[in-house]
Amino acid sequence: MWFASPDEVRERLTAVDYLADDGISTSVFLAGALGKPLLTEGPAGVGKTQLAKAVAEATGARLIRLQCYEGLDEARALYEWNYKKQLLRIQADDDAWDDIFSEEFLLERPLLKAIRSDEPTVLLIDETDKADVEVEGLLLEILSDYQITIPELGTISAARKPYVVLTSNATRELSEALKRRCLYLHLDYPTPERERDIVLAQVPGLPGSIAEQLARTVATLRGLELKKSPSIAETIDWAHTLLALGRTELDEAAIGETLGVVLKHNSDQVRAAKELGLPARS
Amino acid sequence: MTPPSLVDRHIGFIHALRQAGLPVSLAEGLDAANALTVIDLAERETLREAYAATLVKRRTHRPGFDALFDLWFPPVVSGSYDSYGSREDAAPDEDKGNLGIDLERAELPELRDRLAELLMGDPGDPAFREFARAMVGRFGRVQAAAGRQSWFSYAVLRALSPDTLVARLLDRTLEARGGLPEKVARQQIRRNIAAFQEAVASDVRRRIAEESGIEKIARTTVKPPIDKIDFLRVTHAELAQLRREVHPLARRLATRLTIKHKLGHRGRLDFRRTVRASLSTGGVPLTTRLRPKRPHKPELVVLCDASDSVATFSHFTLLLTFALREQFTKVRAFAFVDVVDEITKLFSPGADVLDVISRMAKEADIIRFGRTNYGQVFERFAERYPDAIGPKTSLLILGDARSNYQAPAVDTLKRLAGEARHAYWLNPEPRRQWDTGDSVAMAYGAVVPMYECRNVAQLAEFIETLA
After folding, report:
1. Which architecture, in CATH terms, is A6-186?
2. Which of A153, B39, B174, B207 is most buried per CB count within 10 Å?
3. A245 contacts chain B (CB < 8 A)
């Protein structure tokens, strides 16, 4: 059992500075209670990866991370045979053909490692959407039955079910088969009230009034039609910036100077300056 | 009669979700049922999120889910109705949030004061929803016919008119008007008013459902997800939402397209890299290395109808094509109503979406008489831009093929299409309306393959076949 109730999830995540709302705490609780993987989707920088890290930290579990990218394959996600060692063995001993496919020659990759681990483990499969479609097929066996089949060795079942978190930026639709096996959590930009609390938790030295202004201003920016809305991570960066500059108030001048921290497209900056009536930038 | 059990309600809810178009599989229904056994059913928000986590796997389905959830698992149940008024089965501490105000009897100005106070705060506050519920109880009832009554949110919003409170709220929060603080405050007030309207609407739905059955209202409650909304029937708010979708959609399409390119057969063997790689396995070439395939990138010429009847559609399509610029070697765009003009320069990299649209209306020379004339446009296009279409270009025409009974110039279009490598026509009208009235869709469709393209989903599907 990972957590006893959604309320406990919230308390323990708060203890590691991750503020969960109803949706987050319920899904995190259910993922543990039902033993199902949790798929979190949402725009960049809203705390998807951070959620997995916070769960690991709150439960004292080991975090194993599989970063997905284009061209990720079985050999780098699951396991690989140690070809060099096998070759050497065959060259050294002509009768070794039968026993070169054994534990000894198996190289563990993150997924196999998570399955075989006997301590509590949080398996984070990051940016699943970046991987090729075939990798999803590879994940299905692990996500539904927590086992891996290696043709030469047989099926390896989990010693202890890992807590699996998948993240996706939705740059492509994940397959129905994958989604069906997971619990789904869509993380979105928080309400200004929650964002204020997040900023205060992450940037302890910041005065409450600035955090409040900051959260409201960011909410206003997100209301504009921008190419890339500012993420929570960028709000926190902004708070750090203001703190470092020793600003005590978030007025037009302060925003104008530091807007680059939250808006990273020139057209977005121009647009924000126009809509918010900030002093023109040269 | 025995009251329906939890299982019945669960089954009914899942059935309603399926009817509203959410793909809920049997396994997901079971997951949800399993989730019900481990959570505290008395916590309504936990119940909602448990259902959402197990059943709703797409963001666009969430609003519909929430509306249905509110109907099947209402936050409160109205008490007995008599002919004079309804009584809420109020929780004992209901009035704690609404300090000192008797919501049933208070005068209107008092209520508006209370509303103003709530609009300044956090809409997540339970008092906020309670207030909305009480107001629906007081003002929302409208006599529909003799002896029958119904509930309308319009009546509530008219009585309280939250929109007219904005000025007062601004005066109260700000020392001086203007500048950034006002913008920020306005944004917050707008959001809270929208939350209030939604709370009222949701309570109205609940009351109607109590009186005339859930099934009846459920069917009309759920709006189609944004990618299924008809381009020609889009509302103002939806339009803004659509424009916001351009970049995520373009990104999604671009990934899909590159994946598709990569999946095609790989290039030839790269002998040098294969030998290099074999060194690590003692000269045995265990893995082969292949040369990357040369990507195929089409040149694209977009010819788009910019008249008001199809403006939403052509703007959106243009924005999307330009957001996908990397997928094409070259994109040239032309807009027309009754004359044609090139608008490529407006879509410079990093250009602002809204600017482009307003500049297109202002700067491009596309209107003479203001009535679409496809025939004349095709002839002028062939005359003015003879170099635009070559053997490598794909020609994409966007429009409803309604030419106001002018000569269609099908032959000119046929010649243009013949010069291009491919030609396509996207028509935002439903197929059954083609060739009705002044539409010459079939005549053009015989020369250039014409596709129905009514919503974002269909557009995305088409672009995938194109690149």
Report:
1. 3-Layer(aba) Sandwich (3.40)
2. B207
3. no
Burial call A239-260: b when 16+ CB within 10 Å, e when fewer: bbbbeeeebeebeeebbbbbbe
Asked if the Cβ–Cβ distance from B27 to A192 is below 8 Å, we say no
DSSP B85-115: -EEE---TTHHHHSTT--TTT--HHHHHHHH
Total CB pairs under 8 A between chain A and B? 128
Q: How confident is the model at residue B294 (pLDDT cuts 50, 70, 90)?
A: low
Q: Three-state DSSP class for A239?
A: helix
CA distance to partner chain B, nearest, from residue A264 (Å): 11
Residue B197 contacts by C-beta under 8 Å, 6 or more apart in sequence? B153, B157, B162
Mean pLDDT value across chain A: 88
The alpha carbon of residue A94 is apart from the nearest alpha carbon of chain B, in Å, by 17
User: Residue range B221-229: average pLDDT?
Assistant: 74
User: Which has the closest alpha carbon to A100: A115, A88, A109, A113?
Assistant: A88
State whether residue A269 sits within 8 Å of chain B by CB: no
CB contact A26 to B (< 8 Å): yes
Task: Tell me the pLDDT band of B401, cut-offs 50, 70 and 90.
Answer: confident
Domain-wise residue ranges, chain A: 6-186, 192-276
Pairwise CB contact (< 8 Å): A22 & B49: yes
Once rounded to an integer, what is the mean pLDDT over residues B109-135?
83
Q: How far apart are CA A180 and CA B25, in angstroms?
A: 8
Q: Beta partners for A186?
A: A41
Determine how many CB atoms are found less than 10 A away from the CB of residue B174.
15
**Beta strand B141-145 with B78-81: parallel, antiparallel or unpaired?**
unpaired
Taking CA–CA distances from B38, the nearest residue in chain A reads A33
pLDDT at B264 over 60: no
Cβ B403 vs Cβ B371: under 8 Å? no
| Helix, coil or strand: residue A234 | helix
- Residues of chain A contacting residue B57, judged by C-beta atoms under 8 Å apart: 39, 179-180, 182, 184
For helices B108-120 and B126-139, give the axis angle rounded to 10 degrees.
Answer: 150
A154-157/B340-342 β-pairing: unpaired
Provide the shortest C-alpha distance from residue B140 to chain A (in Å).
29
Q: How far, in whole angstroms, is CA B177 from its chain's centroid?
A: 34
Tell me: the pLDDT tens digits for A233-281? 999 999 999 999 888 888 888 888 888 899 988 888 888 888 877 765 5
Share of chain A above pLDDT 70, in %: 99
Answer yes or no: are the C-beta atoms of B245 and B455 closer than 8 Å. Answer: no
Task: Say how many C-beta atoms besides its own lie within 10 A of residue B275's C-beta.
Answer: 12
Residue B209: left (phi > 0), alpha (psi -120 to 50), or beta?
Answer: alpha
Residues in A closer than 8 angstroms to B52, CB to CB, are: 23, 184
Q: How far is A70 from chain B (nearest CA, A)?
A: 9
Q: Which residues, numbered 134 to 193 in chain A, qualify as contacts with chain B under a Cβ-Cβ cut-off of 8 Å? A: 170-173, 176, 179-180, 182-186, 191-193
* Torsion sign over Cα B37, B43, B45, B48: positive
Q: Please tell me which of the candidates A27, A265, A277 has its beta carbon nearest to residue B49.
A: A27
